[in-house]
Amino acid sequence: MKHIVLLMASCLVLGCSTGNNRGKQFTLDGVWTLRQVDHPAGYTRTFAETEETYLRFYDGDSVMYQCLLTRAETGLTISPIGQQRVMLIDKGHGEYVYMEDDDPYPLTLKGDSVIVIQQNGILHTWHSADDIANEWSTEIKELMVADKQKDQTGEQRCYMLSAKERRQASFIQWILAAFAVFVVLAVSNYVISRRRRQQLQLQLQHIQEVKQERPQVVKQAIESVEASYFASDEYQALQRRIATGDILKDDDWHKIESQVRKIYPGFSSQLRNLHAMSELEYQVCLLIKLRVAPSDMAVVLARDASTISTVRSRLYKKVFDRKGGAREWDEFILSIGA
C-alpha cells in the first residue's frame, strides 16, 4: 500500500512540474561529500576537507553507495557503509523530492555543486566532489560493488586508494603510450625509407640503362657539345670569374645553371629526383658538372675545403645508402644528365 501511495504522489508531483521551464536536467550522478549538518536546535557541524566525513557515490539517479571518507596527500581512505536505492523527482524551481529506499526527503538545489537534503528535520549539505570523481570515480565504484558482495561479518572494512600508485600507473600508461607511438613512427619511417631506397634503385637503374643503351653517334655528339663548351669564351669567362676568388652571387648561379642545362638537358631533373637537396648541395653538384676543382668550390662558396669534401661524401651515402668517397660522387655526377 505504501508503494502505491508513493507512486501516486510521484506521478502527481511529476505531472505538476511538467509545465515548468527547468532548463538543463539536474542529476545526482557522481561523487558528493558531506560538508555541513544543521540541527533544528541551532547546532551546526561543519567538515573540513581533511576531516573524516561521508561520501556518496551516485550511479545515475537510481543507486547510491555511501562510505566514510578521509582525505590525505597520499590518497583516500574509504570505509563502505552500504547501498541504497534512490530516485529523484523534480518539482521545479530547484525543488526536488529525494527518495531513498522509498522514504521521501525534500532536496534543494543550490547552484550546480551544492544540494541540501532534509532528513528528520536535520539539513545535510552535500558538495559535489568533482576532483574525487575525475580521479577516483572508477576505483570507488568498483570498491563499493566488491565490498557489498563480500560476506557480511559486521566488521567495517577500510580501503586505501593510493595517489602514489595511481601516479605510477598513469606514468606507466604514459610510457606505454609513448612507446607505442615510437614503434608506430619507427615502423612508418622504416617503410618510407624502404620505399625510398627502392625508388632510388629504380632511378639509378634507369640512368644506367639510358647510358648503356645510348647509341655511339649520340655519345659522340655529347662529347662534341662538351668539348665546344669547355673551349668557348663563355666557359672561359666563368673560369676567370671563379679565379677571382669572389663569392658567387645569385646572378652567377642563374648563369651557371643555364649553361649546365644547355649542355646536359636531363641533368637537373635526374639530380633532383634522386634526393631532396639543400642549396649548397645542389650548387656543389653544378660545379662538379662544370669540372670546377674542389679547392675553387670552397673559395666561391665561402666554405672550408673539408666542408666541400663532406658534402660530396654525404650525398653519395644518401643516394647509394653506403659509404663512399667524394671522388666516387664526382664520378657519378659526371656520368649522368646528358
For this entry, give a set of tags:
338 residues; Lipocalin; 53% helix; 10 strands; single chain; disordered N terminus; alpha+beta; 8-stranded antiparallel barrel; 3 domains
Quick summary:
The protein is α+β, with helices and mostly antiparallel strands and 338 residues long. It has helices spanning 2-16, 130-149, 163-213, 216-230, 233-243, 250-263, 267-274, 279-289, 294-300, 305-320, 326-335; strands spanning 30-38, 44-46, 53-59, 63-72, 75-92, 95-100, 103-110, 114-119, 122-128, 159-162.
**What oligomeric arrangement do these chains adopt?**
single chain
What is the approximate shape?
rod-shaped
Q: How would a textbook summarize the main sheet? A: 8 strands, antiparallel, barrel
Question: What CATH architecture of the largest domain would you give?
Answer: Beta Barrel
CATH topology of the largest domain: the name is Lipocalin
The SS-based structural class is alpha+beta
Total tally of structural domains? 3
Report the sheet-strand fraction: 15-25%
Distance between the termini: 103 Å
Write down the Rg: 41 Å
Order of helices and strands: HEEEEEEEEEHEHHHHHHHHH
The low-pLDDT segments are 1-22
Q: Counting H and I runs of at least 4 residues, what is the number of helices? A: 11
Q: Tell me, rounded to a whole number, the average pLDDT.
A: 81
Q: Give the strand line-up of the largest sheet.
A: 1-3-4-5-6-7-8-9
